[in-house]
Specification:
With 401 residues, the protein is α/β, with parallel strands linked by helices. It is built from 17 helices and 12 strands. It has helices at residues 9-26, 43-52, 57-64, 84-92, 94-107, 114-117, 133-142, 184-191, 220-223, 241-248, 260-286, 302-306, 312-332, 334-342, 350-353, 360-372, 377-398; strands spanning 2-5, 27-28, 37-41, 81-82, 130-131, 158-165, 171-174, 201-203, 206-210, 229-233, 291-295, 347-348. Strands 1, 3, 6, 7, 8, 9, 10 and 11 form an 8-stranded mixed β-sheet that branches. Strands 2-12 form a two-stranded antiparallel sheet. Helix 1 runs parallel beside helix 2 (43-52), helix 1 (9-26) runs antiparallel to helix 3 and helix 2 (43-52) packs antiparallel against helix 8.
Length: 401
């Protein structure tokens, strides 16, 4: 069994966590820390690497949403630090580029116009607005915890993190043979380097950018490994403003009013989602004996598109919504999914699925009380330490001699 996770930035990761919490409750026979393979793209690479390392969906929820109780809270601010180093390197190249442009123009002023001669100045434009080096530092610290590893070769399951080689346009699966020496944290940073937003990441003399440039999910990486069941989560769905206003009886909003960031986000989502649908149709033909099951938000989900990732309340609401919508989706598709999953030894717990009292907030509160017990923070820290020790022992047991 494998899990393939698409990107979508911090909000995409938060949506995936809510979906995983729902699936882990009602899919009997699935342990999301014990799958055979994990495939992650962009923000999904962070979640995939965490799960493969033994971090439970609940632990990831504490890290991304309930950060007050997390040892390593995820702070969105780390992703929005200006890329001053990139700005400086590009600015330093301007004098030489100016000289080259003037010389080129003076040599052939009649054959080549002024603007054509100075076109090379475009090389001084920074390749990214923000610096995601802080992500590498954060992840290196996280994967240095007891029981975790920053080395693909030390993980029992197969972990594939996808990035795009800029010079060839090829998709590279870090974690595969020949690409498993790269630190996991660096591979995640490369996979999440969205062009224009973050500078490309240099690895072994080559430059890499976001893994979604060619494919959205890359579920085929797991299918090629011969894995017959791949669960996929894709947060990148284009928003349908007219459908949202009709279904929710809201005033219709025009995305153009949100400015360039919203327009670019909608454009990117529309492109990758269309491409993903085409890919899934090909899987049905190429891998007839395998089942690929996709979970994604509906196109009228305004919260998924407009949530403020800096707001704790908004992040909490988004995970709760992903949790509830996934449960609704499982119930709606029960007749379709139950026999598919049964072929792989997985059953849907119908009683848990139809329990009207279940919510993610209640579930997390129960887990927190169970972990804390009567000793408060001391027991909470002890529980985390025991979890780390258990992960270390499992890794030691499965480490090749």
């Amino acid at each position: 069994m494998a899990l393939a996770l698409a990107g979508g930035g911090p909000l995409g990761a938060i949506y995936e966590i809510g979906t995983l919490m729902a699936l882990s409750e009602v899919l009997d026979g699935v342990d999301f820390n014990e799958l055979d393979a994990y495939v992650g793209v962009s923000a999904g690479s962070f979640i995939a690497a965490g799960l493969a390392n033994g971090l439970s969906p609940a632990y990831l929820h504490r890290m991304f949403v309930d950060s007050d109780s997390a040892e390593f809270p995820f702070e969105p601010e780390m992703l929005l630090k200006p890329a001053f180093g990139e700005y400086g390197r590009r600015a330093a190249s301007v004098p030489a580029l100016l000289v080259e442009s003037f010389v080129d123009y003076l040599r052939k002023p009649l054959r080549q116009g002024f603007l054509a001669s100075f076109q090379r100045l475009s090389r001084a434009i920074p390749t990214g607005i923000f610096d995601n080096a802080g992500m590498d530092v954060f992840l290196t610290r996280l994967f240095s915890m007891p029981g975790l590893t920053n080395d693909f070769r030390q993980i029992r399951s197969r972990l594939f993190l996808i990035a795009t080689d800029l010079d060839s346009g090829a998709s590279i699966a870090f974690g595969s043979k020949g690409h498993d020496h790269v630190p996991i944290a660096t591979a995640i940073r490369a996979s999440a380097a969205l062009p224009g937003l973050y500078p490309p990441v240099e690895i072994d003399g080559r430059w890499f950018a976001d893994g979604a440039l060619k494919k959205t999910l890359h579920a085929s990486v797991a299918l090629k490994e011969g894995i017959p069941l791949v669960l996929c989560i894709n947060p990148l769905v284009p928003f349908d403003a007219s459908l949202a206003s009709h279904e929710r009886h809201l005033k219709r909003r025009h995305l153009v009013d949100g400015g360039l960031p919203v327009v670019l986000a909608q454009t990117f989502r529309a492109i990758v989602h269309s491409r993903m649908k085409t890919g899934l149709e090909k899987y049905d033909i190429q891998y007839k004996d395998a089942d690929v099951i996709l979970f994604e938000p509906k196109r009228d989900d305004a919260d998924m598109f407009f949530t403020n990732m800096f707001s704790y309340a908004d992040r909490k609401r988004l995970t709760e919504q992903a949790y509830r919508k996934t449960r609704d989706e499982l119930l709606r598709r029960y007749e379709e999914l139950a026999p598919k999953l049964a072929r792989h030894g997985v059953s849907i717990n119908h009683a848990a699925l139809t329990d009207p009292h279940r919510s993610l907030a209640r579930r997390m509160a129960q887990l927190k009380r169970r972990r804390a017990g009567n000793m408060g923070l001391t027991a909470l820290r002890l529980s985390d330490t025991l979890d780390d020790l258990a992960r270390a022992l499992r890794r030691r047991e499965h480490r090749p001699v």
